[in-house]
Design brief:
The protein is α+β, with helices and mostly antiparallel strands. The protein folds into 3 domains: 3-134, Beta-Lactamase; 140-233; 240-385, Heat Shock Protein 90. The protein has helices spanning 3-55, 63-72, 95-98, 101-114, 136-203, 207-233, 245-257, 281-298, 351-362; strands at residues 78-82, 87-91, 118-122, 125-132, 240-243, 263-269, 276-279, 304-313, 316-323, 366-373, 377-385. The strands form 3 sheets. The chain has a 5-stranded mixed beta sheet. Helix 1 (3-55) packs antiparallel against helix 2, helix 1 packs antiparallel against helix 5 (136-203) and helix 8 (281-298) packs antiparallel against helix 9 (351-362). The longest helix is centred in the middle third of the chain and has 68 residues, at 136-203. The two termini are 47 Å apart.
Length: 388
Amino acid sequence: MNNYHFHNRLRILLLLAALMIVITSLWYTHLLAEKLSTEERSRMEMLANTYEHLNTANENTDIGFLINIIQHNKNIPLILTDEKKNFQSCINYPSRDSSDLMVMKYELLKLRIAQDSIPISANGKVVQYIFYKDSNLLTDLKYFPFIQITIIIVFLIVAYIAFFASNRNLQNQLWVGMAKETAHQIATPLSSLTAWVDYLKENLQKEKNIEALTDMQNDVARLEIITQRFSKIGSAPELTTQPIVPILQNSMAYMQRRAGSKIAFKFINESDENIQLRFNAPLMEWVMENLLRNALDAMEDGIGEIIVRINLLNNRCQIEVSDTGKGIPSDKFKTVFQPGYSTKKRGWGLGLALCKRIIEEYHKGKIFVKESQSGAGTTFRILLPITA
């Protein structure tokens, strides 16, 4: 399992864990709210029984005890009505509301719509009704899950942004560190090879040795190019205005020499102009070689065609690299550019991530998968600003 799949599964597990926490919290809060609601209903029914005892009180009735029960309710707002459900009195409402008859009638109307009343009987006949609404504690408890969810969502968003920023900064540091270290590691043997080439040139003149020296020189030149590429990743590269077509053709020629004879390469320039762009040549060659290498790897049977196409479109240079390989699933069009994602068993998942960094961060362009079909091939498109 590569790093991309590991981190992707980790994100899914964390999301599921957060979802389980939210569901459990909502469920438990709901249970508490239901329990409290049942308890408040029981208290109102007991209060109704108390009023019934008051309505049928005699000289043996402990009226003080009954009044004490009524006064004991200090947190549940209720309205007492007559048998026709007309307003009579209220308890536990703000004094400014309880003194305003219109306000209390409106409150009564809302309670009549919202819930059933609790009847108060006397001598087998309903003489009054109790209407009540949830206490402040129960209301807060009902709204608490929504507040809790909001807080959790805000926390997750802030945590994700912070994690993403931290992760991106770490990735940038890793890119720079990898590039600098690679350039440093290559530089040491490269300087030694260069010295040996100069020594052999001066001391050996045989034809075979000269051929070997030529190949060695080519390899040394290649190492120098690689060193330049990696050294430029860690800092802002120098961009110069120059023709782009020779860069594309050189990259194609280099990769074609390393491809099988059954893979055809084709270059199409749909613009008659000598297209001038502001770019860094070593880095642009690196992008093209990565795309071409991916195209070669996509043709598992070693048979196919690779086409590089360039034209001008809406004041931008458009470069396309197409192959006839196995294709990319549509849900992976953006994923392929993420560091660590690779479909190869031994792949590092850095090639396309490097291409994206070079094109979009250093050259202010755009790179994306234009189209892809399973078994029919893939087309990558690069858009670069044209030099004014």
